[in-house]
Amino acid sequence: MQVRPSTRTVGDAYDNAMAESFFASLEGELIERNTFQSKAQARMAVFTWIEGWYNPRRRHSALGYLSPLNFERSNEALFDFVEEAHVHTEATSETV
Hints:
By secondary structure, the chain is an all-alpha fold. It has helices at about 15-30, 40-55, 70-75, 75-95. It is extended.
């Protein structure tokens, strides 16, 4: 399965913090609030929760408490400016 072991030291508090946070959210927001009739139904609910809410809409402290979608929208002009500057730099270096 190509799973790599942790590169941190034993007992490091930050080693599993992201995974623990994710599974706590999954359990508290989806699993404990629903009952599933089959494994397939549970799998679909987990997939929908992750791809429909958790990944695109959840607020991240590292993004200034914006969701990934809102972060990208609010920084779109900045990303366009940086990309245009990079293209302009490459074009001028070729002509010199």
